[in-house]
């Protein structure tokens, strides 16, 4: 540098374009300037490089560069600029935006072979295709068809069963098990041939599809309207009005509730219901829940015969509420009198054919200890075990025949007693 002084103005005049670049104190641009000069020196590009002595010593030791080097002992404001042979500034990015200068050189002299294009953004990994799932939700299966009469409709469905459980047959097995338990007890056992039974697939995600939740104690509720919408996939609106819907919840928590709807008119045998029953693991418990909730409450419109800690004496408002529904034929298995000649089942108590069956008048029902009476000490409506007592069997028998044969059928106690002879066995307790 100092040993070979050269006029800067003469150097500039000898080149069409000259690149001024300051490499003091930062030499980060050096490699790029070397590349540009290597390609464009034949097109008459010159370089004037401002550096300190130490920087020059480092560069000259590594590279043979025929540039004009100028000693600089302080920082320069301009990092990089381009001038022509008449010393006119062609491009002064100010902040040393090398991309602007390179574009200018490429426009004048041709594309720069050493240009480093930015790496393209990697293509995002495609989202995995979800597994193809058959449209199983809402599919209706006829589990059995009535062989006689109008056909009495039962619609089964499950809640909180995911797709795989429906696909692999688990759901279907639960529906069939529920059906078989329902018909395992009299009078349903003898009149199974009068029933249509449907299963409707309800495919749940991670949780309840039918709005099912547990409440206080053993109570369960759900979205009745949504349940009826699913049932409507199997039944017409008219037939739905008399149907029993059974919702089996995929849960091992004990409970059960049934919601009975009053008929719009006609015989008390009309009226739909929904029974919510958990699929508890103990088979006898599940059997008892199906028969108590669906068979007893849902179809038979029977009352609970057990006593809990709800209270001692049944309040008057509770009595009035139950009496109001008696016009629909509900609660035939409880009464608010202990007079054996006045209770609803007095005709059974006085019939000698029932002398060996322990029918009577036992205090306590509807969860209350007193002020309400039931026909037997125990029954399926008391502790989910055993059988239906005779008054309960009678009312179930009545409703079966009324729905199966319509207005042409007329009730006859003697016909019931003739059928019921098969059940006249002393109840063990």
Q: What descriptors fit this protein?
A:
6-stranded mixed β-sheet; 429 residues; alpha/beta; 30% helix; Glutaredoxin; rod-shaped; 3 domains; Collagenase (Catalytic Domain)
* CATH architecture verdict of the largest domain: 3-Layer(aba) Sandwich
What summary fits the major beta sheet? 6 strands, mixed
Q: Determine the structural class based on helices, strands and strand pairing.
A: alpha/beta
Topology as H/E string? HEHEHEEEHEEHHEEEHHEEEHEHHEEHHH
The CATH class name of the largest domain reads: Alpha Beta
Rg measurement, Å: 46 Å
Kindly report the spatial arrangement of strands forming the biggest sheet: 6-8-7-11-13-12
CATH topology of the largest domain: Collagenase (Catalytic Domain)
Note the quaternary state here.
single chain
The CATH superfamily name of the largest domain is Collagenase (Catalytic Domain)
Instruction: List the uncertain runs.
Output: none
Mean pLDDT: 88
| Residue fraction in strands | 15-25%
Helix content: 25-40%
Number of domains: 3
Overall 3D shape: rod-shaped
Instruction: Give the end-to-end Cα distance, rounded to a whole number of Å.
Output: 120 Å
What is the number of strand segments? Answer: 16
Give the count of helical stretches: 14
């Amino acid at each position: 540098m100092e040993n070979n002084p050269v006029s800067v103005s003469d150097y500039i005049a000898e080149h069409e374009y000259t690149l001024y670049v300051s490499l003091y104190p930062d030499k980060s641009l050096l490699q790029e300037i070397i590349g540009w000069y290597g390609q464009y020196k034949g097109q008459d590009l010159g370089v004037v490089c401002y550096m300190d002595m130490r920087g020059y010593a480092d560069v000259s030791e590594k590279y043979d560069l025929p540039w004009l080097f100028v000693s600089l002992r302080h920082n320069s404001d301009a990092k990089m600029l381009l001038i022509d042979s008449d010393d006119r500034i062609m491009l002064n990015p100010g902040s040393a935006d090398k991309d602007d200068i390179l574009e200018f050189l490429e426009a004048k002299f041709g594309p720069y072979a050493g240009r480093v294009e930015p790496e393209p953004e990697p293509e995002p990994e495609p989202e995995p295709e979800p597994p193809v799932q058959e449209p199983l939700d809402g599919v209706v299966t006829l589990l059995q068809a009535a062989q006689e009469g109008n056909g009495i409709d039962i619609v089964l469905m499950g809640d909180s069963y995911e797709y795989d459980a429906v696909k692999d047959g688990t759901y279907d097995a639960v529906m069939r098990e529920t059906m078989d338990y329902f018909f395992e007890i009299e009078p349903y056992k003898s009149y199974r041939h009068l029933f249509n039974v449907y299963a409707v697939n309800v495919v749940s995600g991670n949780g309840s599809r039918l709005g099912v939740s547990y409440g206080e104690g053993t109570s369960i509720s759900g979205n009745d309207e949504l349940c009826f919408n699913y049932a409507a996939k199997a039944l017409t609106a008219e037939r739905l009005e008399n149907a029993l819907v059974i919702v089996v919840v995929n849960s091992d928590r004990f409970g059960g509730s049934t919601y009975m709807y009053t008929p719009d008119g006609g015989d008390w045998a009309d009226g739909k219901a929904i029974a919510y029953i958990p699929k508890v693991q103990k088979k006898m418990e599940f059997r008892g829940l199906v028969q108590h909730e669906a068979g007893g409450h849902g179809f038979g419109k029977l009352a609970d015969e057990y006593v809990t800690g709800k209270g001692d004496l049944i309040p008057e408002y509770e009595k009035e509420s139950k009496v109001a529904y008696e016009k629909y034929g509900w609660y035939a298995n409880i009464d608010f009198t202990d007079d054996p000649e006045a209770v609803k089942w007095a005709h059974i108590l006085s019939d000698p054919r029932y002398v060996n069956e322990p029918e009577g008048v036992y205090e306590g029902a509807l969860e209350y200890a007193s002020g309400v009476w039931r026909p037997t000490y125990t029954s399926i409506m008391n502790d989910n075990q055993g059988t239906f007592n005779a008054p309960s069997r009678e009312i179930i028998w009545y409703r079966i025949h009324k729905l199966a044969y319509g207005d042409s059928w007329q009730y006859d106690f003697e016909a019931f007693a003739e059928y019921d002879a098969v059940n006249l066995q002393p109840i063990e307790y």
